[in-house]
Design a protein that fits this description.
- There is one protein chain.
- The protein is of the alpha/beta class.
- It folds into three domains: 206 residues, FAD/NAD(P)-binding domain, CATH 3.50.50; 112 residues, FAD/NAD(P)-binding domain (3-Layer(bba) Sandwich); 111 residues, 2-Layer Sandwich (Enolase-like, domain 1), CATH 3.30.390.
- It contains 14 helices and 22 strands.
- The longest helix has 25 residues.
- The radius of gyration is 24 Å and the shape is globular.
- The N and C termini lie far apart (69 Å).
- 44% of the residues are buried.
- The chain binds flavin-adenine dinucleotide (FAD) and 1,4-dihydronicotinamide adenine dinucleotide.
- One of its GO terms (biological process) is 2-oxoglutarate metabolic process.
């Protein structure tokens, strides 16, 4: 029977990063993984494959629509979908192998099988009808999340798909109906629209991207509509019937009322994700869940059972890979007796569409609700020189600062490369910086990041190029 300092159940970004950090801190570590490959949702069916398809489909669209105006004359691009899927798979394989390498390099044992907690210090690992029990001083649950299902709508991953099926469709659907205008719906909707689908998105709320700044969401919706997206807001899908030719989705106003039927070839259900705790034996072991089925933890990631911790999508907070990673590092440090910590006020969120949307800190709606007095500095990419010469002027940077102290409380960007540009705001906010600090920081010219500096200047009503 092996004895470890730490056994981590799950090898997504939370689990494998936790294992590496714990090993760096001198612990003897094992990870348990039930999937054939390491890396969890993120590497296998989440962040990475979706970004590969977003990149490839964007290149396809650029070649078809943007090259000519720059004087690059190419014949109309032809889609080779199997080759594009192969490109995606190569990306997955490369990253998964990278995690295997990291486990070896850090001398982390990989135990293949389903992990079940038998009590403090004991994990049973079962695979192919055989099981072993490993002893360990500490356990970290990093089992992530699974797709949320819609009652009465059976996902077959062929015609009615979750994100997993939508990453591997065998042909471009003529009509794609997306249920849920959240991050998955808009990212994967973008992929298939670029490749030729007519995309309609049905959203329960009266806005897209709930949780993002309202002004950003409204402008982003207009941009997506210009690209060809159709939105049905304030609506819910109550059922999907299939015949041999099409899917017939029944749609009702969210508040109730007359139903209509919309035809589609593929329906993508993306209404959120649910914490994954199946098979872990939590109830029997005495690990408490919260009202939403997430593993309940204290501020130091400790569960109700001594020596058992939890991180990532399976606990409360945004379901994001970088949040899971940072929690993985923090809990390893806490177990090692250090002061591991995650600053939940500064976790960026990015939607990897074209243009991208990025955000960190408070939205205007949140500041209003909290009664915080704030100032707004906004700068459009139409006034940014680099964006003008590249003819990529959609979007703006918006900075929200405390009216009294000028401390930056939130930054929201729509625009090409917004996902890269948000990080100077994250660093600034980690240091408690002000809009003036940002405005006085020299930014290279010509870059799109100059729009961030100009938005910071605009907080003090002194933007130069506007
Ligand atoms: P997971 O990555 O879900 O990993 C959990 C692992 O635990 C899995 O490998 C699972 O097999 C294993 N496991 C579960 N139970 C057991 C058990 N009992 N025994 C053994 N192993 C077990 N986030 C971003 O930040 N950026 C993005 O661009 C992004 N894109 C996404 C796109 C899609 C389509 C999806 C679905 C998600 C996306 N996410 C993105 C979210 C991101 O994937 C998750 O937040 C992240 O993977 C959570 O990491 P985790 O370590 O908590 O869990
Ligand atoms: P989401 O929570 O982002 O969006 C779900 C949407 O569906 C919401 O707008 C919600 O109001 C709507 N909805 C819920 N029930 C509905 C119904 N019955 N009918 C119509 N609409 C309904 O969830 P999504 O897009 O499924 O993504 C899951 C998670 O994965 C997210 O939490 C996200 O953080 C993560 N993710 C992150 C990405 C990124 O960081 N770029 C990319 C993809 C996923």
């Amino acid at each position: 029977m092996a004895t470890y300092d730490l056994v981590v159940i799950g090898t997504g970004p939370g689990g494998y990063v936790c294992a590496v950090r714990a090993s760096q801190l001198g612990m003897k570590v094992a990870v348990v993984e039930k999937n054939a490959t390491l890396g969890g949702t993120c590497l296998n069916v989440g962040c990475m494959p979706s970004k590969a398809l977003l990149h490839a489909s964007e290149m396809f669209e650029e070649a078809g629509h943007s090259f000519a105006k720059m004087g690059v004359s190419v014949p109309a691009p032809k889609l080779d979908l199997p080759a594009m899927m192969n490109f995606k798979q190569q990306g997955i394989d490369g990253n998964v192998k990278g995690v295997e390498f990291l486990m070896k390099k850090n001398k982390v044992d990989v135990l293949k099988g389903t992990g079940k907690i038998l009590g403090t210090g004991k994990v049973e690992v079962s695979a192919d009808g055989r099981s072993q029990v490993v002893e360990t001083k500490n356990i970290v649950i990093a089992t992530g999340s699974d797709i949320a299902r819609l009652k009465g709508i059976e996902i077959d991953e062929k015609r009615i798909v979750s994100s997993t099926g939508a990453l591997s469709l065998e042909k471009v659907p003529g009509r794609l109906l997306v249920i849920g205008a959240g991050v998955i719906g808009l990212e994967l909707g973008s992929v298939w629209r670029r490749l030729g689908s007519e995309v309609m998105v049905v959203e329960f709320l009266d806005r897209i991207l709930p949780g993002m700044d309202g002004e950003v969401a409204r402008q982003f919706q207009r941009i997506l509509e210009k690209q060809g997206f159709a939105f049905k807001l304030g609506s819910k899908v109550t059922g999907v019937e299939a015949n041999s030719k099409a899917l017939l989705a029944k749609i009702e106003p969210a508040a109730g009322g007359a139903a209509e039927t919309i035809e589609a070839d593929v329906v993508l259900v993306c209404i959120g994700r649910a914490p994954y705790t199946d098979g872990l034996g939590l109830k029997e072991a005495g690990v408490a869940l919260d009202a939403r089925g997430r593993v309940q933890i204290d501020p130091h990631f400790a569960t109700s059972l001594k020596g058992v911790y939890a991180i990532g999508d399976v606990v409360a907070g945004p379901m994001l890979a970088h949040k899971a990673e940072d929690e993985g590092v923090a809990v390893a440090e806490i177990i090692a007796g250090q002061a591991g910590h995650v600053n939940y006020d500064v976790i960026p969120g990015v939607v990897y569409t074209t243009p991208e949307v990025s955000s960190v800190g408070k939205t205007e709606e949140e500041l209003k609700q909290a009664g915080t007095a704030y100032t707004v500095g906004k700068f459009p990419f139409t006034a940014n020189g680099r964006s003008k010469v590249n003819q990529t002027t959609d979007g703006f940077v918006k900075i929200l600062a405390d009216a009294k102290t000028d401390r930056v409380l939130g930054v929201h960007i729509i625009g090409i490369e917004a996902g890269e540009m948000i990080h100077e705001a994250c660093v600034l906010m980690e240091f408690g910086g002000s809009a003036e600090d940002l405005a006085r920081t020299c930014h290279a010219h010509p870059t799109r990041s100059e729009a961030v500096k100009e938005a910071a200047l605009a907080v003090g009503k002194r933007a130069i190029h506007m």
